């Protein structure tokens, strides 16, 4: 999955005292693009030394470290000095062959979105400030503290014997299918959210819910919590017609276009295709 970048090392520990240095990595976002070094089809992460315009007056925020090199968000828009630098649409992360750049790019996007959405206190409207000892924003007026938002969401591979249920979201392009997923609501357990989402979106009742694994998904600020569940394929499928416009059971060797293994959905689908989805380790059976 996209966060699995070994042998590269990602460290999200926040270092409040860190100041940007010449060799540090610079992440500069503009709308839905990121400034990258370019060399044909190869991308690289720019360093502070690449931009003489970055000074002590330039607003920057420490984000995390990659291979022990600090990564900073630079708020001022930097010039894309062609042909060596260019702003790339963030969707490049899906096809780039350098997994460490893909992961750092979207992890940084998660944080820049959070900072941007919380410039002002939601309680009193005062401008927020970064806390000095942790990754959090605090209101100097009413002292409200805001931490990065992470939304829990379930995603489930529903199986019936040697078949897998796949669904096409209304926002998917063409003949593109994936697993059922949805956000956990207030007061719900993960298992309750799973049963509700499946019932709402495709009208099925599920049993034998088993935990698979989890994946952070920065694009939506989510923590995707994966499960495998069983359903009787003879139940009628009733798509909600809103989020889901089509759903069906598929057999191995006959799967439609679907997510790649950079996502937990793609990994679970690939495990099903290989006949290994049920062998996902010491899973714990739970009931709803």
From TrEMBL:
The protein's matches in PROSITE patterns, at most eight in alphabetical order, are given as: NUDIX, NUDIX_BOX
Q: Where is the Nudix hydrolase domain?
A: 148-274
Q: Which InterPro entries match?
A: NAD-cap_RNA_hydrolase_NudC, NADH_PPase-like_N, NudC-like_C, Nudix_hydrolase, NUDIX_hydrolase-like_dom_sf, NUDIX_hydrolase_CS, NUDIX_hydrolase_dom, Znr_NADH_PPase
Q: Which GO terms describe its molecular function?
A: metal ion binding; NADH pyrophosphatase activity
Specify the domain of life of the species encoding this protein: Bacteria
Q: Name one Pfam family in it.
A: NUDIX-like
Q: Which cofactor does it need?
A: Mg(2+); Zn(2+)
State the top-level EC class: hydrolase
Q: Tell me what reaction this enzyme catalyses.
A: a 5'-end NAD(+)-phospho-ribonucleoside in mRNA + H2O = a 5'-end phospho-adenosine-phospho-ribonucleoside in mRNA + beta-nicotinamide D-ribonucleotide + 2 H(+)
E.C. number: 3.6.1.22
**Which keywords accompany this UniProt record?**
Hydrolase, Magnesium, Metal-binding, NAD
- Kindly list the GO CC terms recorded for this protein: cytosol
Q: Name one GO biological process term.
A: NAD+ catabolic process
Query: CDD domains of this UniProt entry?
Result: NUDIX_NADH_pyrophosphatase_Nudt13
Q: Which family does it belong to?
A: Belongs to the Nudix hydrolase family. NudC subfamily.
The molecule here is called NAD(+) diphosphatase
Supply the source organism for this entry: Prolixibacter denitrificans
């Amino acid at each position: 999955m996209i966060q699995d970048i070994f042998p590269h090392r990602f460290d999200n520990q926040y270092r409040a005292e860190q100041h940007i240095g010449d060799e540090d990595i610079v992440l500069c976002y503009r709308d839905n693009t990121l400034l990258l070094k370019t060399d044909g089809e190869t991308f690289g992460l720019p360093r502070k030394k690449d931009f003489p315009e970055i000074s002590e007056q330039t607003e920057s925020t420490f984000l995390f470290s990659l291979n022990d090199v600090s990564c900073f968000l630079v708020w001022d828009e930097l010039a894309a000095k062609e042909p060596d630098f260019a702003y790339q649409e963030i969707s490049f992360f899906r096809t780039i062959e350098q997994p460490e750049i893909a992961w750092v790019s979207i992890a940084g996007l998660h944080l820049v979105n959070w900072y941007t959405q919380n410039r002002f206190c939601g309680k009193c409207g005062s401008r927020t400030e970064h806390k000095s000892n942790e990754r959090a924003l605090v209101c100097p007026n009413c002292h409200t503290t805001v931490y990065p938002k992470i939304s829990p969401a379930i995603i489930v591979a529903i199986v019936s014997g040697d078949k897998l249920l796949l669904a096409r979201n209304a926002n998917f392009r063409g003949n593109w299918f994936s697993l059922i997923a949805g956000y956990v609501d207030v007061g719900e357990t993960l298992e309750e959210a799973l049963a509700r989402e499946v019932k709402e979106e495709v009208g099925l009742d599920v049993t034998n819910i088993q935990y698979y694994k989890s994946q952070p998904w920065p694009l939506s600020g989510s923590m995707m919590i994966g499960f495998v569940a069983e359903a009787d394929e003879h139940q009628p499928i009733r798509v909600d017609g809103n989020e889901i416009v089509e759903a069906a059971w598929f057999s191995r060797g006959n799967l439609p276009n679907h997510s790649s293994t950079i996502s937990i959905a793609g990994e679970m689908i690939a495990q099903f295709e290989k006949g290994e989805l049920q062998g996902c380790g010491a899973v714990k059976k739970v009931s709803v």
